[in-house]
Automatic annotation (TrEMBL):
The name this protein goes by in its record: Peptidase S41
Signal peptide boundaries: none
GO molecular function, one term: endopeptidase activity
A single GO BP: proteolysis
Entry's transmembrane regions: 7-24
PROSITE patterns referenced in this protein's UniProt entry, alphabetically: PDZ
InterPro entries listed in its UniProt record: ClpP/crotonase-like_dom_sf (IPR029045), PDZ (IPR001478), PDZ_sf (IPR036034), Peptidase_S41A (IPR004447), Tail-specific_protease (IPR005151)
Protein origin, superkingdom: Bacteria
PDZ domain boundaries: 81-146
Native organism: Confluentibacter flavum
CDD domains recorded: cpPDZ_CPP-like, Peptidase_S41_CPP
Length: 529
């Protein structure tokens, strides 16, 4: 488990930091005059910074000292109250807003050159004629090649004001000269719904990766499409979803719950309570729903799962969720930075708080994954620790528990075949994506005209492709890697990545799900097995 211990805290930390932004529905009782009146504690910090600024022997960047001070204060609060420096605000806001202004390509740097993996469907680059495999070498006469060019610099040259134009020079294999394109920038969605397709004739599937401003709209489009295909049951996949906006989670739950059903309630330190109820807007109130969760499903994901479980609506499938029941509110600090401060707790309709303890410090809190792994909880539901004092009963008589995540109705153990350290590492580092791109780049014409569904159903990754991938890895990593025990899993990842680069539109999930044991369990439940 060396890889997991090395990288997982980083991955989880980033994911949860993105997922904690679920506030924005609470009102402070204190006026700004009262909140920001002078007091000795604030004067002490201001005076110390002034002393350092004016009298300290060396020149010091006091902005960095302020950042350290703010983080030090927040470290003494809960793990989800966080500071967002000014330089990170645009990126964080863009991610949660759900779109940005750009030219609409998926790209990466390959041999010091910007290569287009795929132009986003109906985006400005696709309309201009830019294709997968194109190399963008110049933007408005600025070079986009060279080892020193960072992704941040590239994005600055490709992004811009809406409806502004950028002139691109593009190298395309087989063309004797560089091609010229003028692309008008527009709003480019950052997808939060990865896939929406039919698993069986009656069971639809929707994968949601976070709860951003645009998520409900994307979800509703996917749901409407599946209803049109004849779906009477929905598998809502919230695995590895770190959360997001509280209001978006409420809108999603509203599609499944009958009018006036309680979705959740929040309570602040003054005891003020706010309740949220389902409305008459729901389009899937009579349908059956399965919610897929795992140990990385947090925050808004748990709101959805908890609300449906507490109303005996559908079935929660998977493993115990993360356990975050705190609500944050973003507050501007006046210099372009902000703090997301925990302002209340949320409770499921039966009154459960699913926030896990954090009294032993942040490190212990974020290391909880390893505690679950070592205890055997991810393999055996009997190893899940519950407290009788946190026992609740749903209207249908089902026993549910608070105190640390949503415990599923149907347990599915972690799939060790898909949790191999080497596979996780090479996927995380982008080796599979790079190899797939090189495969396509050698002969894109071999895939032209092949419909997405034909590729998914009929294309096969051969043993020879896997051997070539092993050679590719060994050259780039200097290691001797073989896939004897995981040959089929590697084939599946290569095929899914090829499909994603060719088609997008949820094709990666559709292929990976073909051997997903949790998906298989949901299909069995749907078919009554």
């Amino acid at each position: 488990m060396q890889f997991q211990k090395k990288y997982l805290p980083i991955i989880l930390g980033v994911a949860i930091a993105a997922g904690i932004y679920i506030g924005g529905k609470l009102n402070f009782m204190d006026s700004s005059d009262r909140l920001f009146t002078k007091n000795s504690k604030k004067d002490k910090i201001n005076r110390l910074i002034d002393y350092i600024d004016y009298d300290y022997v060396d020149d010091i960047n006091t902005d960095s000292i302020v950042d350290v001070t703010v983080n030090g204060i927040l470290d003494n609060l809960d793990p989800h109250s966080v500071y967002i420096p000014k330089e990170d605000m645009d990126r964080v806001t863009e991610n949660m807003k759900g779109d940005f202004v750009g030219i609409g390509i998926s790209f990466y740097t390959y041999k010091d050159t910007i290569v287009v993996i795929r132009s986003i469907e109906n985006g400005p680059s696709e309309r201009a004629g830019i294709k997968g495999g194109d190399r963008i070498v110049m933007a408005n006469n600025d070079s986009l090649t060279g080892k020193r060019l960072q992704d941040r610099e590239i994005l600055e040259k490709l992004k811009g004001e809406i409806n502004s134009k950028v002139n691109l020079k593009v190298y395309r294999k087989g063309e004797p000269k560089l091609l010229n394109f003028t692309v008008k920038r527009s709003n480019i969605p950052i997808k939060s719904v990865d896939a929406a397709y039919m698993l069986t004739e009656k069971l639809g599937y929707i994968k949601v990766n976070r709860f951003a401003e645009t998520t409900y709209r994307e979800f509703k489009m996917g749901l409407d499409k599946l209803i049109a295909f004849g779906a009477t049951e929905i598998a809502l996949d919230l695995r590895d979803n770190p959360g997001g906006f509280l209001g978006i989670a409420e809108q999603m739950v509203d599609e499944f719950l009958e009018d006036d059903k309680l979705i959740l309630f929040t309570k602040n330190k003054r005891g003020n309570t706010e309740k949220s109820y389902a409305t008459d807007k729901g389009d899937f109130e009579d349908g059956k729903v399965y919610v897929l969760i795992n140990e990385n499903s947090a925050s808004a994901s748990e709101i959805v799962a908890g609300a449906l479980q507490d109303h005996d609506k559908g079935t929660i499938v998977g493993r115990r969720s993360y356990g975050k029941g705190l609500v944050q509110r973003e507050m501007d600090l006046g210099d372009g930075s902000a703090v997301r401060l925990t302002v209340s707790r949320y409770y499921t309709p039966t009154g459960r708080s699913i926030q896990r303890p954090y009294k032993n410090g942040h490190k212990d809190y974020y290391d909880d994954y390893f505690s679950r792994l070592e205890s055997g909880e991810l393999l055996d539901p009997e190893k899940i620790k519950v407290h009788d004092s946190l026992k609740f009963k749903t209207p249908g008589g089902k026993i549910v528990y608070g105190g640390g995540g949503i415990i599923p109705d149907v347990f599915v153990p972690i799939d060790n075949s898909m949790q191999n350290e080497t596979l996780t590492y090479i996927q995380y580092r982008g080796y599979i994506a790079n190899f797939a791109f090189e495969m396509l780049d050698r002969d894109r014409r071999a895939y032209e005209g092949m419909p997405k569904q034909d590729f998914i159903e009929n294309f096969e990754v051969t043993d020879d492709m896997v051997l070539k991938f092993q050679e590719y890895l060994n050259v780039r990593t200097g290691s001797k890697i073989t896939f004897v025990a995981y040959n089929e899993e590697v084939k599946q990842y290569i095929k899914a990545t090829l499909a994603d680069q060719l088609y997008g539109e949820g094709s990666f999930a559709e292929i990976i799900n073909q051997k997903d044991i949790m998906i298989e369990e949901v299909i069995k439940l749907s078919e009554g097995e």
